Amino acid sequence: LAETANEIHIPVGRPVVVKLNSDDVIHSLWIPNLAGKKDLIPGRTAVMHLQADRPGVYRGQCAEFCGYQHALMGLLVVAHPPAEFESWLQAQRKPAAEPGEPRAQRGQQLFQSLSCAMCHTVQGTQAGGKRAPDLTHLASRRTLAAGTLPNTPEQLASWIADPQRFKPGTNMPATPMSAEDLQAIVAYLGTLK
């Protein structure tokens, strides 16, 4: 088992059971090329069965109007050949590597001293927040902000600087900092593969 944000990774040709929960409102997960819609009702656990018969990236979306962020609630299902999936899974189970470059090292220090570490976890570090996505392998993900933005250094910097610009009402606050500090944090997050 490996926990990610914005992505579900599965092996090709094997059935996968996904447990679904909602903390707040009714959602409906829909991955049209792999499964029908499945409602997520607060206080209940739903189960979705997935199986991809060929490798690929499949789009998923919340299909139930659930509030202001509804249209910005997407995810990707990445179906890997079995051996590739096992390699991916082993990599995901490892803690974050220590950054080697000075700017990334400074970014790690900033990340852990600012409010970032209060919400986010980076395994193998002091960052142990549980309210936001685990960022241990952030740089290996294709998207940010529930599929809203491509995961590039430029988009990541824009997201950190002003998340409300991309997802009004998101729980992530803007974190005021100098451009130099922002680039150091982006450099650090870029090492989390």
Task: Walk me through what this model shows.
It is a single chain. By secondary structure, this protein is α+β, with helices and mostly antiparallel strands. The protein is built from six helices and nine strands; from the N terminus they run βββββββαααββααα. Strand 3 and strand 4 (35-40) form a beta hairpin. Helix 2 (102-113) packs across helix 6 and helix 4 packs across helix 6. The protein is globular. The model has no long low-confidence stretch (mean pLDDT 92).
Fill in the keyword field for this structure.
single chain; 193 residues; five-stranded mixed sheet; two-stranded antiparallel sheet; globular
Mean pLDDT: 92
H and E string: EEEEEEEHHHEEHHH
Structural class given helices, strands, pairing?
alpha+beta
Major sheet summary line: 5 strands, mixed
Number of helices: 6
**Spatial order of strands in the largest sheet:** 1-7-6-3-4
Cα distance, first to last residue?
A: 17 Å
Rg result: 17 Å
| Stretches with pLDDT under 50, minimum 5 residues | none
The outline comes out as: globular
Strand percentage lies at: 15-25%
- How many β-strand runs? 9
Helix content class: 25-40%
Write the layout of secondary structure elements.
Blueprint: E1 7-11, E2 16-20, E3 27-31, E4 35-40, E5 46-50, E6 56-62, E7 74-80, H1 82-92, H2 102-113, H3 116-119, E8 143-144, E9 149-150, H4 153-161, H5 163-166, H6 179-189
Helix pairs in contact: 2-6, 4-6
